[in-house]
Write the structure tokens for this entry.
Amino acid sequence: MTEKRFRIDGSIYYITSIVYNRLKIFTRPSFIIPIIDSFNYYRFQYSCKLIGFVIMFDHIHLLLYPEKTESITDFMRDFKRFTSGRITRQAKLEGKTKWVEAFEQAGTETDRADFKVWQDSFWEQFIYTEKFLKQKLDYIHMNPVRAGLVESAADYPYSSYRNYYLNDNTLIEIDSHWQ
């Protein structure tokens, strides 16, 4: 049974979603591009501003600001469902049989899908001040550095750091002027 989530109009959400069993699947562009494509599609589908993001090997962090009354739960449900399908198809195409088997086992264990990429639910936190927003954005941008993936946040390509500090919108445009 899914727990009811409350929506606070005008809130920005800090969201974390984790790959089932922390399988490290976001190590290649062919598995990251579906995530970026989906960020872009669903932010317009649900009228959300994408303020920040990072795609780590086994999880993602987002800062989202829904402009309309659509629920962040609907955004994440559709995002996870669509990306699960794309990632599973890509894993099959690339012969990643252990991943496909893991996705299938996860689907069987949870009895929620044939193939399951993401853990059930997601973690969200309301952003209630500009200072807290900046703290979370810094946390997101420094995540690859803390994980030892790069020496500088500017070196990690799958983060909004490049949008903010290098004016690099080639991967995806973000809503840095959200107010």
